[in-house]
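Title: Request for sanity check on Mitochondrial ATPase complex subunit ATP10 prediction

Description:
We are preparing a figure and want to confirm that the structure record we downloaded matches what your pipeline produces today. Could someone re-run it with the sequence below and paste the raw structure tokens into this thread? We only need the token string, no images.
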Amino acid sequence: MLCLRTLKSQVPTSRCFSTSSPSFFLGKLNKHLQATTPKEHVVITLTKPIGVREEPKDTDNSPKDPRSIKEKYKDFLDPEKNKKRQEELEKEMSRSGMYDLYVYRKTKGKLFLSPQSYWKAEKSLYFPNFVGEDLTSSKLKGTTSLLKGKVSVIRAYTADLGEKASKGYFKVLDNDYLTTEGYDKFLETNPNSQIVDLNITENGLKAIFVKASKSGLRKVVHESRHDKYLIVPKKGLNIDVRESIHLLNNYTCFIYVVDHQGRIRWATCGEPTEADRNMLWRTVRGLEREYKALNPTEKPE
């Protein structure tokens, strides 16, 4: 009897478990659920510059993982990197396709309001590197080099709704700068500028479809813009990169005006208002003047 009692005293009871592992598990689960719960979207007016602080490289944010198997395994065991991956995953899970659609309908695509004037060069931040293939080749290229030395008007979109909404920004007077004839007019007025397309493919299926449409796109896009139209896999753009420029919805369009050093000087999204359109082209004219002042003897291409 004594031996049996001794053994019974050494067996852990259910009470021990109820105060340890279950409570720890539930606490962790609750924290995870809170992190992945969609937050109510608040439309703000951009006042501070957006972008990344460090000048990006053409290899940043590539959809292809350059790490070796050994490096991947080492990163897998790194607690800090695991924590960062978990935070990124939680952010992604809080922004489902249905959430994007809900926000798009609620805001009519105006996720934020554009600043009333463009940001000063010394305070502006860099446009992050996007990696994709253009209309001339299947080889991947980055936007960092593409944006250097030119004032760039970037239109970024994922869905057809966004692509259609973006067209309104490029109809100036009697010209449509996105047509082949209109782009010639654009270059006459803005000789040191370019229009860059970032067609962001949400998944592999859409990427196959868009790439299969390259020949059709080459017919409607001005020849000198073929290397400035990038098909970008969303896979390479983690949530932190997209958050840095407020590119956070699959259904609307985003317009960025970037100077010749790759810094974002103005941004907007959604259907254009008259004020948006006027401010966009006022910014382009202002950056053209800046560029000419810095390069007085340089002739445009």
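Thanks, this matches our download. The chain has a mean pLDDT of 85.
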